[in-house]
Amino acid sequence: MNFKLKAHNALLYQEQQVYSDFIDSFDVHYTDFKSHNIIVHIASNQPPDIIFIAALLKRSHVHQAKKKSFVVVASEWSINDFPNELVVVPTSQEAEDLIEMDEMQRDLGF
User: Fold this and answer.
1) I need a surface site. Which of 35, 45, 97, 102 has the fewest CB within 10 A?
2) The domain that contains 68 carries what CATH number?
3) Closest Cα partner for 5 from 44, 42, 47, 35?
4) Spacing of C-alpha 71 from chain mean position
5) Which residues, 6 or more positions from 97, have their beta carbon under 8 angstroms from its beta carbon?
6) What does DSSP say about strands 70-73 and 87-89: parallel, antiparallel, or unpaired?
7) Residue 52 belongs to what domain range?
8) H-state helical runs in 2-89
């Protein structure tokens, strides 16, 4: 997993590696980006995996409980591959827009 901190967001890239390796790396590095909103970019050349999706959902719940956003960018996967509780968008721009709206809502106390 590669990650980059950008303003209030942490951009995480799942690139051509085994899904479990990404999750392990996520857990190891979580302290580096836990105070940021998280955008997970899923490699487009890999098929959906139910165990990976469940692991993302679990980490999403933990992160959102800390009043931070967790968005998955999956341009090649169908939205139907994900549970409704996981925020999934097709582009990075949409992820950033959603996070911006989330932050405004949190600032307003919603």
Assistant:
1) 45
2) 3.30.750.24
3) 35
4) 4
5) none
6) parallel
7) 2-108
8) 19-33, 50-64
